[in-house]
């Protein structure tokens, strides 16, 4: 069974990893600004970090050729193609070619993600 985990970029610009939670609407003025948080443990205490909703990505359960976890929104390269990971048609795929991620991941490397490295998005083949 694969690990179910998420990542999201905090409003301070740091990536956090853990469980995805949604804020209750109208709970406080502070939380009204965001609708998603990542719940994680920092070794001392449990933390709930507000994250930019568009940055949230789920772990695919796969690793690249170097053993790096692959998340939704990651950009992979295999020497020939540069593609982005997304959930499409009930499976993890790489776009724009629409191949299944599980047939590509073992020979590719994560070179960035669509949030931190938009320059790779223009060059995707």
Layout: helices, strands, pairs:
Elements: E1 6-9, E2 15-22, E3 36-41, E4 46-50, E5 57-63, E6 69-71, E7 74-77, E8 82-88, E9 91-95, E10 99-100, E11 109-113, H1 119-122
Antiparallel strand pairs: 1-2, 1-5, 2-3, 3-4, 5-6, 7-8, 7-11, 8-9, 9-10
What is this entry, summarized?
This protein is mainly β. It folds into 2 domains: 6-54, no CATH class; 57-122, SH3 type barrels, CATH 2.30.30.
What does this structure look like?
- The protein is mostly beta strands.
- It has 1 helix and 11 strands; from the N terminus they run βββββββββββα.
- A hairpin with a 4-residue loop joins strand 7 and strand 8.
- The chain is globular.
Oligomer: single chain
The CATH architecture category of the largest domain equals Roll
Distance between the termini: 32 Å
Give the overall pLDDT as a whole number: 83
| Approximate helicity band | under 10%
Q: How many strands, which pairing sense, and closed or not: the largest β-sheet?
A: 6 strands, antiparallel
Radius of gyration: 16 Å
């Amino acid at each position: 069974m694969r690990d179910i985990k998420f990542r999201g970029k905090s409003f301070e610009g740091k990536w956090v990893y853990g469980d995805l939670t949604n804020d209750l609407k109208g709970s406080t003025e502070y939380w009204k600004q965001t609708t998603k948080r990542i719940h994680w443990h920092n070794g001392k205490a449990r933390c709930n970090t507000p994250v930019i909703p568009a940055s949230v990505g789920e772990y695919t359960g796969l690793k690249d050729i170097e053993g790096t976890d692959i998340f939704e929104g990651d950009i992979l390269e295999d020497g020939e193609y540069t593609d982005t990971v997304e959930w499409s048609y009930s499976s993890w795929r790489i776009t724009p070619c629409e191949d299944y991620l599980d047939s590509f991941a073992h020979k590719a490397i994560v070179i960035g993600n669509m949030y931190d490295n938009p320059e790779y998005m223009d060059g995707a083949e």
